[in-house]
Design a protein that fits this description.
Bound molecules: guanine
Strand order of the largest sheet: 1-11-8-7-5-6
Number of strands: 11
Number of helices: 10
Number of domains: 2
Shape: globular
Structural class: alpha/beta
Low-confidence stretches: none
CATH architecture of the largest domain: 3-Layer(aba) Sandwich
Order of helices and strands: EHEHEHEHHHEHEHEEEEHEH
Helix content: 25-40%
Mean pLDDT: 96
CATH superfamily of the largest domain: NAD(P)-binding Rossmann-like Domain
Length: 301
């Protein structure tokens, strides 16, 4: 990555902001403990042996412990039946000590992710994936917001990036990133009030849209997809991509690449997120924030 950015380009440090948020949460947990109030408790369900999912869930549980939350990891073999998983979800819904929980995706093919997502009590839906939370997000009602979009809002807020009246192009329309992100950026809210264009695989003349964007949020899952000729001078570029590509530069033989061709795009930007160290570390901070809100019953009483 080119660290010699031109003067005027600000590198958004997601790792630092995530740590700041974790410290703020840890302080709040200390306060809750001192007042004899309930300690937030997050549970995570992990099915199967997928290495990426094991790493993600492991770091979620570890970060819970770091900030003083209680955490419970529930592991199932990949042969678990949908019914067994639904029984566990029912148990977690009824357990008053569990404030929030997540079911790590993807699930094995014989289990319906939609059925599982819909079985989670929306009040305990720390991932913000349940249709009730997504619907409330669309209506600008209090809700749990899924981790990546929520993390991006935090970055825009903490770097005091003006969004009101700006043109925002979101590239990618996934249920957990692109679609909610497009809605959040258009909402009448302190971070929002953008004119949003949601671009996707069928968009014609993508470059015409991106060249008109003050803010580009790339969540398409294709390495180096956004190139310098697609970006207006002074744009804010948020890169959601975490693409594992082969590399001769690393011992492992792999490296992480974003959806944005960083070296050539960064010099044109007012703000840009790197990969790694930009949006990625924020997702865990969002999950902790949702769990804290669940524990304090701030969204649903
Ligand atoms: N798989 C990839 N991202 C996520 C996430 O944010 N939550 C869950 N539960 N599974 C995921």
């Amino acid at each position: 990555m080119n660290t010699n950015l031109q003067m005027g380009t600000i590198l958004i440090d997601g790792k630092k902001v995530s740590e700041e948020i974790q410290n703020e949460i840890a302080e709040e947990v200390k306060q809750l403990k001192a007042e004899g109030r309930k300690i937030p408790h997050l549970a995570a369900i992990l099915v199967g042996e997928d290495p990426a999912s094991q790493t993600y869930v492991g770091s979620k549980v570890k970060t819970c412990e770091k900030v003083g939350f209680n955490s419970t990891l529930i592991k199932f073999d990949s042969t678990v039946t949908e019914k067994e998983l639904l029984n566990k979800i029912k148990e977690l819904n009824e357990d008053d000590d569990i404030d929030g929980y997540i079911v790590q995706l993807p699930l094995p093919k014989h289990i319906s992710e939609q059925k599982i997502t819909e079985a989670v009590d929306p009040k305990k839906d720390a991932d913000g994936f349940h249709p009730v939370n997504v619907g409330r997000l669309v209506l600008n009602l209090p809700c749990y917001i899924s981790a990546t979009p929520y993390g991006i809002l935090q970055l825009l807020e903490r770097y005091k990036i003006e969004t009101s009246g700006k043109n925002c192009v979101v590239i990618g329309r996934s249920n957990i990133v692109g679609t909610p992100m497009s809605i959040l950026m258009a909402r009448n809210s302190s971070i929002g009030n953008c004119t949003v264009t949601l671009c996707h695989s069928r968009t014609k003349n993508l470059k015409e849209h991106t060249l008109n964007a003050d803010i580009i949020i790339a969540a398409i899952g294709k390495p180096d997809f956004v190139t310098a000729d697609m970006v207006k001078e002074g744009a804010v570029v948020i890169d959601v991509g975490i693409n594992r590509v082969t590399s001769t530069e690393t011992k492992s033989g792999f490296k992480l690449k974003g959806d944005v061709k960083f070296d050539e795009v960064a010099p044109k930007c007012s703000f840009i997120t790197p990969v790694p160290g930009g949006v990625g570390p924020m997702t865990i901070a969002s999950l902790l924030k949702n769990t804290l809100m669940a524990s304090k019953k701030e969204i649903y009483s």
